[in-house]
Amino acid sequence: MRRLAPKADELLHRGWSRSRLLTVLTADTDDLTHPRGALAWRIDDLLATPVPQETVHPAAKPQRPADQGVHRECPGDDGLCGRPLTVGETLCRTCAGPAHHVEKP
After folding, report:
1. What is the per-residue pLDDT for 17?
2. Of 90, 91, 4, which is closest to residue 45 (Cα–Cα)?
3. CA–CA distance from 13 to each of 8, 38, 47 (Å)?
4. Which contacts qualify for 11-17: CB closer than 8 Å, 24 or more apart?
């Protein structure tokens, strides 16, 4: 977990609030067998996205798959992947490859 600290510090430096980070990083982790891996992938996803504005209405529809919640793990790599999947995904981005990644409207 210590190796994730610099990335978490970077998110805070970019303007993410502690409460928003806690909400995004800990959502839907109860059924994951690899929660540390899910945390690492979520942090990497957050680093690749713009910082949300604090004025966003809480009832607004989530724009990113990560905001819609993880519901199970990727079965790729003969069941060894374990990356979190969002609603509607059957494989993670890594296992699916760029040709199989489904963009959501």
Report:
1. 86
2. 4
3. 9, 22, 11
4. 11/43, 11/46, 11/47, 14/51, 15/51, 16/46, 16/51, 17/54
pLDDT in tens, 61-94: 655 555 555 557 788 888 778 787 776 778 888 8
Of residues 54 and 26, more confidence is placed in 26
Rounded distance between C-alpha atoms, residue 69 and residue 52, angstroms:
17
As a whole-number percent, the residues of the chain with pLDDT over 90 amount to 0
Rg (CA), the chain: 14
